[in-house]
Records
---
Amino acid sequence: MSVRPILSIGDPALRAPGASVSADDLASDRIQGLIDDLVDTMRHASGAGLAATQVGAGVRIVAMEVTSNPRYPYKPPIPLTVAVNPVIEPLDGEVVEINEGCLSVPLRGNVRRHVNIRVRYLDRDGNAHDEIKRGLTAGTWQHEVDHLDGVLFIDRVEDTSTLSTWDEFEIHHRDEFIERITAFSDRLGS
Ligand code: ZN
């Protein structure tokens, strides 16, 4: 287990779609070691999620975990989840504007995400999962799976005036966003 360097925006590897992982590959030491490193690296960086493409491994694997995260104190908890070959299907047209950050991008900005999604994926042992995710957790899934297609959240920022550094977000935008998103999460019951 080790912490790997996280690629930053501008690195072409972040823009290359990841390849599907076969059952044989998933069981290999190489991929199981990569998964261990993804979890270590995500936790070391206080990320809510990390995609394999962000450490230069071009495969369709993401890790997610939210406990009490200093980067995102308003996010509901996500138990440690490793998703292999994840597929997302929006369940309806409802969207919410979420202020997002990314370990590969030194900015935050507002992105519209589907509120209700179905996710299908394999866990690290190859077991198939079919689940419904909602709200901020659904947003985290969409952000991470975007990485596997070479898409960064800033590609989806429609109003570029919402872009800010983390420091400026704290000063000018944090309170308003947390108030809005907490009210949204309460309405959603998640
Ligand atoms: Zn990201």
---
Amino acid sequence: MSTEFAAPFAALPVAPRDPRLADAPLLRAARRLRPAHTPVWFMRQAGRSLPEYRKVREGIAMLDSCRRPELVTEITLQPVRRYGVDAAIFFSDIVVPLKAVGVGLDIRPGVGPVIDQPFRTRADLDRIPELEPEMISDIAESVGLLTAELGGTPLIGFAGAPFTLASYLVEGGPSRDLARTKALMYSDPQLWEALLQRLAQISAGFLRVQVAAGASAVQLFDSWVGALPLADYRRFVQPSSAAVLDAVRELDPTVPRIHFGVQTGELLPAMAEAGADVVGVDFRVPLDVATARLGGDHAVQGNLDPALLFASREVLGQRVRQTLEAGAAAPGHIFNLGHGVLPDTDPDQAKFVVDTVHAWKG
Ligand code: 1CP
């Protein structure tokens, strides 16, 4: 798939980075260099499980909160202050760039993204214009505020991968079986490719704006792609994700790219081929097994089961160390959960995980 869609983002000037970032454990692990300690952060660390998050979000709709630079900065910094994690993840959502190009959608509390008019036919492509940098100038502003505050702590920018974005557009909201998405993919491959190409432009543009403004790593979330078998992943999905990952490398080859999905045990070799530097692994596959499936030369991220944060400290500590030992088989390991922090998680348990990871002498 061509990456020509990347203009006008190709010309974005890239902000200078804080020199202290050169030693940041997260960036060293992603580059497969030995870090001072194993880095740790949590998917969904900013948000729902923190009382200070619920307080600042009171009365503000999710999508509005993502477009207010001071609020985005505060929410993004909250888990860094509380946990001492090795990276901040930008507070936003995968559907923010879709809303920015004009797709009618909302994020409903307790549900997730809901689309006004689901994507069904070729005519629907006209309702998804390409993303332009000016549509998300507030995102660049938020990233700028954040990197000034974060100093030597990396900011991870992120976007939804084309398949996962398509799943919300086609289904109209969260779905268990992705039946309509798969039906479109299998029955009209040409329209599917056109949709994924458009979404790749949007996803790449969202990442490029964050990188240009100072994000020092990015994560591409293909959360629901584990619903596909390997051969269909390769044929129908991998080219568009690879195009997004390439677009980031073209803008700044020094920025590590992390690629994550849930239930991707069977897809790991093909995800490695899509070109990321780090592959995120869910909790179903031990990290040493995942490393072998990836061919041995990728850094990995993961993969403690988020449910273990509800277990006793003794069990939790053992499982954290077990994850660290398995991760040592990879040429680089970023500790994380196998998916996002669950809403009722006790923040003290998450802090205990961070402290246990940092104390580990591998
Ligand atoms: O801390 C962080 O990780 C930063 C913030 C963040 C990220 C990275 C949010 C805030 N959303 C995301 C990414 C995201 N959004 C993904 C990929 C990550 C993953 O797999 O967990 C996905 C699939 C979404 C879509 C989405 N947005 C859902 C899932 C719905 C489903 O299909 O099951 C939900 C519930 C949302 C809303 C949302 N996004 C973020 C927050 C804090 C919330 C809850 C908002 C609220 O209702 O107040």
---
Amino acid sequence: MSSYPDKSVTVLGLGPMGRSLAGAFLDAGLRTTVWNRTPGRDRQLVERGAVGARSAEEAVAASDLTVVCVVNYDAVDAILRRDAVRDALRGHTVVNLTADTPDRARDSAHWAARHGIRYLDGAIMTPTTTIGTPEAVFVHSGPEDLYEKHRPVLDALGGTHTHLGEEIGRAAAYDIALLDIFWTAMAGYVHALAVAKAEGIPARELAPFAKGIGSILPPIFEELAEDVEKGNFSGEDNPITSAASSMAHIVHTSEAHGIDAGVMRPAEGMARRAIGLGHATDGFTRIVEVLGRR
Ligand code: NDP
């Protein structure tokens, strides 16, 4: 028997993530209507019991709640802002799980309010394989009562759901901050693999040590966050001059191999700027304060 006998949901966008979301809704027993710009992407979902809508307007009319998850907000706008879709959404709720910037989230909320559409923004912080499992992580922002109303359906996606507040851009702002960490780390890793390769070190041999570097980061994240909150920029154990020196070694080694040090140069530049402003004995967190200066 269905876990949500009275519940239905529509999913717009059937890329890898949209398909995973729709699959989790189906697994939870929801009546799930799906639509994608390019036809045919709904085939496996329909075989599993989803309703394949012929148009986006037909899809959004089928459920009180529409989840949209496409490449970016230009794509969201291309789907939702067509007259027929916008009219069919009036009085319904959109949960936008597409990744983009906080400003685009605010713009979407204004547009929705002007057209009588209820709107929640959200972000997915984990890969498709986690959807429907305890490992999935979702953040949401927007009107709390609306979030609570649709929470039972969103819970079908599994994992942890956190409502970050009523300010609609907040979920996207968390997403941006967390992706900032992720992509700079990824850029650092691929750069490290290139430098290691130039030194004759196979990627597979470096990987266990790279994991070790990853594992020392979580306590450092917490400690630095505390320092930033307290305005403590002490560099007693690890002054910023030491960080700048370490980064310079990476730049030199890369360039000696003819490898672009474009990832590391700006990081070293940030440290040198803080030193130039008189903070040589401070710690790395001083950069947070320096970057924030107008
Ligand atoms: P993509 O980011 O590649 O998005 C693909 C979807 O966007 C397809 O449904 C595609 O439709 C649609 N699309 C693209 N352009 C347009 C347009 N102009 N008009 C209408 N639809 C359009 O794949 P994902 O499904 O992986 O990602 C969806 C969102 O989820 C993204 O914002 C992504 O950042 C986020 N996300 C993804 C994760 C992942 O692991 N994949 C993890 C966390 C977040 P069509 O088939 O017609 O091209």
